[in-house]
Design goal:
CATH class of the largest domain: Mainly Alpha
Distance between the termini: 31 Å
Oligomer: single chain
Structural class: mainly alpha
Radius of gyration: 17 Å
Number of helices: 10
CATH topology of the largest domain: AhpD-like
Shape: globular
Helix content: 55-70%
Strand content: under 5%
């Protein structure tokens, strides 16, 4: 059976209609800046309170001031999503890595296996930590945090690495459970 490409997920959860004024303005800003409204936002728009909670946390983790660059946060998103095999996030955040790095090969390496990428020691330590947190979080110990400190991360940075990795572990599961589909534009972006 062919998938309905008009819906962002396999679930029958239509967007609130009409959208509240503030949400409509937010979607207009997305269209202006990105050229599209990401399907993840459309998926959450069946419940405006859930959409607002999602976007507030996403914007805080991915866009607010941090010792981590925007590219580093996107790299974490891709590595976590690669481990979890989340089609939506690999596609959307892989495009972001390609855009922010200006390197389509790096984007593909992170999607497939970050360990083959030519990363600096700081990025390698960050992604190793995010991978371990995703694969076996109960095994994180002080030595893992100390490795990050030795790579130049502050304790605040460690909090941010863990928070970004934790967020994408949660969203990967929601995206997979609902068969969330990325916007078609992401597939060819920044290649």
């Amino acid at each position: 059976m062919k998938k309905d490409t008009q819906r962002p997920t396999a679930l029958d959860l239509p967007m609130v209609d009409p959208l509240p004024e503030q949400t409509r303005k937010y979607f207009d800003i997305c269209t202006e800046k990105l050229g599209l409204v990401p399907n993840v936002l459309q998926a959450y728009a069946f419940d405006i309170e859930k959409l607002n909670a999602f976007t507030a946390l996403y914007n805080d983790l991915m866009l607010a001031d941090s010792g981590l660059t925007k590219l580093e946060r996107e790299m974490i998103a891709v590595v976590v999503s690669s481990i979890n095999k989340c089609f939506y996030c690999l596609t959307a955040h892989g495009a972001a890595v390609r855009e922010l790095s200006g390197d389509p090969v790096l984007g593909e390496m992170l999607v497939m296996n970050y360990r083959v990428a030519d990363l600096d020691p700081r990025q390698r330590a960050m992604l190793d930590f995010a991978a371990k947190l995703t694969e076996d979080c109960a095994r994180i110990e002080e030595q893992d945090r100390e490795t990050l400190r030795q790579a130049g991360f502050s304790d605040r940075d460690i909090w941010d690495i863990a928070s970004v990795a934790g967020f994408f572990n949660m969203t990967n599961r929601v995206a997979s459970a609902s068969d969330m589909r990325p916007n078609n534009e992401y597939h060819s972006a920044h290649r």
